[in-house]
Protein 1
Amino acid sequence: MISGVLERYKDFLPVNSNTPLISIGEGDTPLVKSSHLGNKIGCRSLFFKLEGCNPTGSFKDRGMVVAVAKAIEKGFDSIACASTGNTSASAAAYGAHCGLRTTLIVPKGNVARGKLAQAVAYGAHIAMVDGSFDDALEIVQELCDKHSIELVNSINPNRIEGQKTAAFEIIDDLGDAPDALFIPVGNAGNITAYWKGFKEFFDIGRSSILPVLNGYQALGAAPIVNGAPVADPKTVASAIRIGNPASWQSAVRARDESNGVIAAVSDEEILSAYRLVAEYEGIFCEPASAASIAGLLKQVEDGADYSEKIIVCVLTGNGLKDPDVANEIVPASLGEYKAELGSVEQALTKS
Ligand SMILES: *Cc1c(COP(=O)(O)O)cnc(C)c1O
């Protein structure tokens, strides 16, 4: 039997006797020790937190389950959000599971194919708008103000509450907090949530240290790094293609209080890390997720010494979400051959 994050961490979540402890199996994701990459770069204790193993394939499920449970508790029968993908997929899944009507406002041409396919399959009501994510967010806020619909975007504080459970799990798995955590940054809710989670467990003695948080934005979508919003954010990593993060200030606080950094990695660095973790670890993550690994590789290149440290890279979503990026990888060996052993053997020994 699955329990889910509401049941497992209810003492730390906004749960009362009227909150339904719904779950479709979110949380309790694997913390996998690196088999090759860690040795290659001199980090002996490198772990990957596989958030792509959540029910809809991204960490968004942790926050969504709390937001939807609270919506039901408040008596809503309808939820809505604006999203470039994973939030939509997650809202649609929990909406379907709980018999709620789910409305998604999606910026046209900005959504990875796998994510849209999920929202459609879960039966959500989808409106594509000819505008940016920020335009979509404005519309959905007005929609929820006007009608009796619960907004489940990341400005809903229950999302952050649910997402902090990933930090709890890391501490429960390792027996303490890691020395450093690497994480992609888009709307900056997740880095905010991890810091909240690490601090809460530290404060009650469940961990003896607080980790250094290192957040990575994409170079073409790096408002926090630049110190100014980006009007037209551009990156291959659609999940972090955000020009004006909702949780900007709290991400800066997480960075400063943890003595970490929020820095940028290029699309080339992201795609290179995306391929490395698939090829060397057997872990296929979203391009956005690979920003965490790209950040670690960059720090090591710049001389950071993590040889004696325990490091966790958060891999936020599953690689199958974005088949178009995956299909651009040049295959190691692939061709068409006659359907006979001889010609295939010949082709394989050549490569
Ligand atoms: C949402 C998302 C991010 C960015 O997280 P924020 O909380 O917006 O910073 C990164 N990767 C994936 C796969 C996501 O779905």
Protein 2
Amino acid sequence: MIGEFPSVAAFVGAVRPEIPVHLFRPHRMAQAAREFVSGFCGETLFAVKCNAHPLVLETLWAEGIRLFDVASPMEIRRVAETLPGAVMFYHHPAKTPGQIAVAWETGLRHFAVDCIAELEKVAALTGTGMIPVVRLAIPKGSGAVYDLSTKFGATPDVFVVTLKRAVALGLSPAVTFHVGSQCLDPGAFRLGMSLAVELLDRAGVSVGLMDVGGGFPAYYRSTAAPPLSAYFDMIRQTHAALTEPRGIRLLCEPGRALVAEGGSLLVRVNLRKPDSVYLNDGIFGGLAETYWGKAALSLPYRVVDFLGRPRMGAVGGFTAFGPTCDGNDILPWPLMLPVDVADGDYIEFNLIGAYGREMAAGYNGMRSDAVAVIGQDFAGHLR
Ligand SMILES: *Cc1c(COP(=O)(O)O)cnc(C)c1O
């Protein structure tokens, strides 16, 4: 942690960093957490994989987030050390015996499974009180930028037999699904909830808990999605009609929508050529998700000079290269930058609070973990 600064200009003026720096805006994370805590008709878990920094965990905790979705011993240790009172759900559906042991000994009781083999593996290594959270795959075309059901999640038939097997083992299962990340259609949640209820009825199994997953959107340059309140309304209506009458409580586990707006990435222009810029971070670093999301996840950005003063002049198109020696290290969309952009300027990319620092690889020895806190909102995206 480099420190706290009232604005990006104050930070650049004081530090003039040569490495990429993640700028956190905890007040924006707190705001998003309040939206979920007051708007979602159930309890909210935070999906730790999208930002496991202690400051993020503490900020969400202070707003009333008590439950955390983890997927590795590292994430378990991080949450346990930072927030001793937190309750964690192990929502990775393919675990090793050692990982299960770490989780069980740390006190975790909820374990995601999406087939009988994983259910029996976890059951054999844990004791009474283990709650299998059976994950259902969501049919394709649910309106998300990322499909999260091709890799994990049971097909309807496997979902039904896994639930029945859990009951036969004397366990009380819960159910979950993930509509896909950056889901643009609130109707996907109704689809997931109704499919899960239909299959519970087919299995003749009742559950006390349904986790409707993450997938709530952040608002990128190209995003045409309704506001979060539309998702909450859709889920509340479906709950009233389908799950509440069956005595099922709801959980959700957003990542992106809680923290994307709470962080930006400050990248330095290391070299300017006539039609291109060479940046100190790229798709192998803090901009990794941009490579997969392409135009669907295009980030708002702005340019400041080495004293932190915004460059506001006429713009032109630039190819943006990352810092590694790999020829593929190019941003998937050209940047519109002021034509007087110069070596030593900075580009601030917004919406990097989720899947930014966490996804960065150490290729070419160029990973930066540097974090500074900024008191002011991001403003002034270049068009
Ligand atoms: C990634 C993930 C999430 C968070 O998804 P977002 O799209 O960031 O909200 C939640 N649950 C599981 C199981 C995940 O893998």
Protein 3
Amino acid sequence: MTSTAFSPTKKISTFYPPQRTLMGPGPSDTHPRVLSAMARPTLGHLDPVFTDMMEELKSLLRYAFQTTNLMTFPVSGPGSVGMEMCFVNMVSPGDKVIVCRNGVFGSRMIENVQRCGGVAVVVDDNWGEPVDPQKVEDALKQNPDTKIIAFVHAETSTGALSDAKTLCEIAQRYNCMTIVDAVTSLGGSPLLVDEWKIDAIYSGSQKCLSCPPGLSPVSFSDRVIELVKNRKTKVQSWFMDLNLVLGYWGETRTYHHTAPTNALYSLHEALVILYEEGLEHSWARHQRNHEALKAGLETFGTKYLVDEEYRLPQLNSVYIPDGVDEKEVRRRLLAEYNLEIGAGLGDFAGKIWRFGLMGYSSKIDNVMLCLNALETVFSDMGKKVDIGSAQAAAHKVYEENALNAVSVRTS
Ligand SMILES: *Cc1c(COP(=O)(O)O)cnc(C)c1O
């Protein structure tokens, strides 16, 4: 007899999630090929067939990051764990780290530095603007003992893209290492780890890679490995200590933790899809769908938060039009169209919406669904709209901007 104390009050049966369209700041829609990869038989994490797959996964990630770094692998955990992995390994007590903050995710980096016993020198820029390289250089002049510069490449809280190449050049001139958050940029915006000489980078599976959440691709240069090996104090986290994790992801394959095998199949498949499409082609697709969505949104009179020059194609932050109940719009999109869009964060809560066009979600069908749904909901709620013109504006962009400029990778 089981105890009634542990029996649920209502009958619980299999969970069937509704089929949504995800156009928020992440997660994005998962490609059906990726979902089915996840449903394949579970293997032991030391099974030779599985470890062969891990090797392929590492080389696919090197392609995505455009790097030859040997230390390129997915961390078992969301993007936030990838972030912590960089900081706990690279920051020793007393180390000075310049952290650029132009949105939510920069603040988290500051927390990380402080929790590692480091000293964070904060370079602030307004939310919605990119990191200003001149301010970083000024901070370096004032703090010549700085060891690391950390910044977010693509700020998902605002939709601003920072100039990672220039920021890394500055870091090298001042003999500093770099930690780059590429959670939202990887796969969606040009990102060249080796060419830009990035030292440590982390990303996430659920944004432009269109894989379920829970994995964080990372890559570390040889300089980072050297730094970690020469640390005077032990890395404070056992789970994230690179020296130990490498025992599993490196040659020796010793047990460290049980790798999330099925989740890793899904990342493998997502990266195969990216490789088949080709990085340049993926970047171009994100740009094209962004331009179509933008043309449609502008027919409602909406204004973008970020200047065109720094705008992320995969994350469209727009001011909410006057006289619109923003919560009600989001509620209706979800209830009536199964469509999720993102709300504003921090100071922008209630002021902006964030439309994600990430990975598999970056497609014509989603752009059209979203514009159609907004037109109907706006019109229902008493806002004057010219039905059909948002989609017509988007169509015009698709017509004028054919996707033939970049050829699809075939080999
Ligand atoms: C989503 C996101 C993160 C956090 O990733 P999680 O997978 O939610 O932990 C970090 N940085 C940026 C820029 C992000 O967009």
Protein 4
Amino acid sequence: MPSIWDTVQPLLVVPNWPLVAFTLFIGFPLFAIVLNVARQLFLRNPNEPPVVFHLVPFIGSAVAYGMDPYKFFFAMRDKYGDVFTFILLGRRMTVALGPKGNNLILGGKLSQVNAEEAYTHLTTPVFGEGVVYDVPNHVLMEQKRFVKFGLNTENFRAYVGMIEDEWDHFIATEPGFAPYRAGGKDDWGHFDAFEHMSELTILTASRTLQGSEVRAQMDKSFAHLYMDLDGGFTPINFMFPNLPLPSYRRRDKAQKAMSDFYLSILQKRREKASAEVEYDMLAALMNQSYKDGRPLGDREIAHIMIALLMAGQHTSSATISWCLLHIAHRQDVQDALYKEQVERFSTPDGSLRSPTYEELKDLPVLDSIIRETLRIHPPLHSLMRKVIADIPVPPSLGNASEDKSLIIPKGNFVLAAPCITQVDPGIWKNAFEWEPSRWTDPNSEAAAMYKEYTETGEKVDYGFGMISKGTESPYQPFGSGRHRCIGEQFAYVQLGTILSLMVRTLELKIDKVPPHNYTTMITTPQKPREISFRKRQL
Ligand code: HEM
Ligand SMILES: *[C@@H]1O[C@H](CO)[C@@H](O)[C@H](O)[C@H]1NC(C)=O
Ligand SMILES: *[C@@H]1O[C@H](CO)[C@@H](O)[C@H](O)[C@H]1NC(C)=O
């Protein structure tokens, strides 16, 4: 009878490689999976939201969530109710769905939920230090107040003409639009909806918000810096803020170069102190001071400008792409949009004159197209916060089949998904259909919801001016509460101007609207997404 020692000793001297390999690659993982499953089955904490069943620890539900968050959220809601926790690469993410769920998270107390800890790893290397999620919340609230100075009516009025200039230049020079310039009835061309609109919006955003110096460099060095910085603003950067990879090095180099570029602009402007009025964000930020009297520093201004560039670019370019894809698909809506332009802007000689900011705000068809597109394709599907003190879940929100109150424990993350309430069949008629007319009927639920989100709802001032709180609205593409978007009006000016001008110039056609691609930072259209166009035949 061999002793145990007899069996073990040879292993210690000469490793049994097959056994070692088996243990490492199959035994341990299998053991971890069994342990993980057993823990879920037998050790469920009855005081916390149910945990989405998963086999592999750490990875958890990352694949299902990452591939299609809508499908994942709807399926888990059926299984677990409105509040549940899933594992995302080692993080415990507690989702709270529905209007009450949105309110729990986006209306959460500062002592309980924290955005900085959820986002800073992604944003600080890209924006730079001292701004947004690299500072305590009260500082962010003041920085949002500063930015709002630059987003005023007077500036918006000037922006409409600048955007028109950029569009005219784009359609006259962009190689993809050569068939337009040929101009015949049979000269159909096509363009990639997202790529071309990204190009256009970076030009319009830099011409308007960013200022003439940035716009002048946009055809040159700044464009490369932007590309490198953008390459470091992806979901991978969320999970791994710093890796020894070329893309990370390029990100860091671009951040520094861009920051220095803004600094030099600021310096030149201060030296010049010209009488010439600049209607841009830099001009507005140059004069701001915090409540304690400290002036906003030039480095902070530079980093705020980068933050605005990143916050506005993909959100706007994706939204305009989706708008175009839908009107290319729905000829009746495209016709209505064109008709609205003709009715409002025709001149005696038959041409259409430039719109003004005020006129753009009063075009119901245009407005309904943007609103409906943001309902079905909100660029951001998940809004996250870190839980810094236990959050009690109101009984009305917990899993309906269990009537005890639950706690979301400190250390978890919470995730709000207003994208789900925006297409919830329990709330909307034909919830998944893109149907702008739902917004133009003044008696519809949709119209009332929008009014509540923007005008009539509870008003609060978090430090950046009075806003509609909106945390319980089923429709909130721009978020709600203290982190609510401040770029909403600017986005409408930019989208509205571009859409108006495009529908005047081009007829658009596509067979089918592509599905969502969720592997990008924001929800983009999957390829192929080529829109056919020709010069509009009058
Ligand atoms: C269609 C366009 C846009 C959409 C759909 C959009 C959406 C959003 C959403 C959902 C949030 C809330 C994020 C959260 O709660 O975690 C947000 C915040 C914000 N957005 Fe936008 N945005 C758009 C355009 C812009 C533009 C053009 C700018 C800049 C000019 C901008 C600047 C900001 C800023 C500064 C915040 C505040 C972040 C915070 O307080 O934590 N956005 N946006
Ligand atoms: C900035 O301050 C200067 C002097 O205090 C003033 O003349 C100028 O109008 C201000 N600019 C803005 C954009 O507020
Ligand atoms: C989705 O986006 C990723 C990242 O940009 C891209 O690599 C991939 O090709 C896209 N998928 C489709 C089907 O368009």
